[in-house]
Amino acid sequence: MKSIFITGGGSGIGRATAQLFAARGWFVGLGDINESGMAQTAALVTAYACFTQRLDVCSPQDWASALEAFAQASGGQIDAVFNNAGIAHGGALAELSESEIDQLIAVNFRGVVNGARAAYPWLQKSAPGSCLLNTCSASALYGTGGLAIYSATKFAVRAITEALDTEWQDDFIAVRSIMPSFIDTPLLAGPANSGSNRPKRDIVTAAGLEFTPVERVAEAAWQAVHGKRTHTLVGKTAKQMALAAKWAPGYLKNRARKLMQVRLARD
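The structure assignment produced for this chain is given below.
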């Protein structure tokens, strides 16, 4: 039985991916600071094998102990690690607090670096056919106003995905990313930052942008782990953004400005 360890497994993309991989015969491990959410995910895959452990992705020590414990539970092998945990503070740069900026960088990028470093020896052991999968974003296709730090962290995830796919090629470890646009997960339930009281979901809806179903993102994760593309675009908006980033970047600037105007009009 193949095994995958998923961070951010307590909700959203992580939960949907756990359900899909478990249903297709994989042993699933979940890591999250949200222990109650992990328990709920585990209950949804109770008919299949599932492992859970509290994990703060910002802690290398947590990573080391989580993967060691998961490997013991899975029979000594880890075939895939999914760096999925992330946060989504937004708003103009001047509106963000120092702590919000630090948290975005720590979780969204340093957490991915920590995961890659911890996963490497286990993925090397199970190669060929092993995979590090990172949750990137359509925001890594073109810098997004109103999401400057978030977008920058996802550009960094995109860069490390591409770099490690080259570095680890001789070890026969694939490094992949998924690039969704807006997904209706708990990340969008709260306000963009501490200076706003409007849910991020309302801003996206008011701007007329689509939500990609979380089940489609999980399917993209499956395809990424088994496929040859470094980056997998998820949803109509992400695919449109990739095309526009290459041929019509002005369109993306205007779209980001529309999002900002919608937010400012109601905050």
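Interim note for the steering committee: The longest helix spans residues 98-126. Strands lie at 3-7, 27-32, 50-54, 80-83, 130-135, 173-180, 231-234.
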